[in-house]
Amino acid sequence: MLHISCDVHTHTLFSRHAYSTIEENVRAAAELRLELLGSTDHFSSMLYPEVGKTERAQGYDPRDFQFFMNYGCWPKVWHGVRLLHACEADIVDLKGNLFGHDVVMTHEINGNPLRRECTLKDRILRDCDYVIASVHRDDFTMGATLAQTTQMYVSALEDPKVLILGHIGRAGVAFDMDELLAVAKEKGKLIEINEATFKSHPDATVACRRIAERCAELGVMISTGTDAHISHEVGHFEGVRGMLEEIRFPQALVATRDADSFLAAIRGALG
Ligand SMILES: [Zn+2]
Ligand SMILES: [Zn+2]
């Protein structure tokens, strides 16, 4: 049986359309004897409306994203599970920019002026162990060429905090697979095979299988994430595991096979 001991794509209440606390997710992971849980709430315009200009920032209010700013208080190991804090950041344009890249933060959440202005993106990603980059809203890709959409994914993958490209099999954006996978391989970055796709988007599973097969042929590492939006889903990889076993996906290319392998992938790709 294929070993998958890490769930590195999960959501908590902070994602707003998700329903569990971080501790409920950790307990669910512990019950299934997972070694590692990565919590990856949405860093996205899905969460809160744009506010225009405030005294604290332009475009979005950093107070709406403060959940990401106090990760330091999370235990490294909780109920026996290694816990990582991360986020799933939206890719927002064809340049591969991530959400918040154009939001200039001038003040801390308490109203104190920042000594040096930074972008909301840099402030939030700074404290993340890794980042998943995903396309959710895809209107900006309409009419784009394959070269442009491929470059979008390549640029997102090249961001120094991005470790994983999320659910590219179901995002609905076409891309040149071999070109993208070559970059992932060269940089030691991971292509996600996403469990929620098997549960909620069965029409996209053929694409996911093709991506996994090509990763196996080219020697590209994958990550597995349930994309759980409630603790009940954490660690349940039936769809992903079934498909990977069917195509005899090599265990050595599964970065989420155990905690040590996933932590090594972070060190290797993000330094
Ligand atoms: Zn997503
Ligand atoms: Zn997600």
What attributes does this structure have?
8 helices, 30% helix, 12 strands, 8-stranded mixed β-sheet, alpha/beta, single chain, TIM Barrel, 271 residues, two-stranded antiparallel ribbon, binds zinc ion
Can you characterise this structure?
The protein is of the alpha/beta class and 271 residues long. Helix content is 30%, strand content 21%. The protein has one domain: Metal-dependent hydrolases (TIM Barrel), CATH 3.20.20.140. It is built from 8 helices and 12 strands. Strands 1, 2, 5, 6, 9, 10, 11 and 12 form an 8-stranded mixed sheet that branches. A two-stranded antiparallel ribbon has the order 3-4. Strand 7 and strand 8 form a beta hairpin. The relative contact order is 0.18. It binds zinc ion (ZN) (2 copies). The site of one zinc ion has 4 residues, from loops.
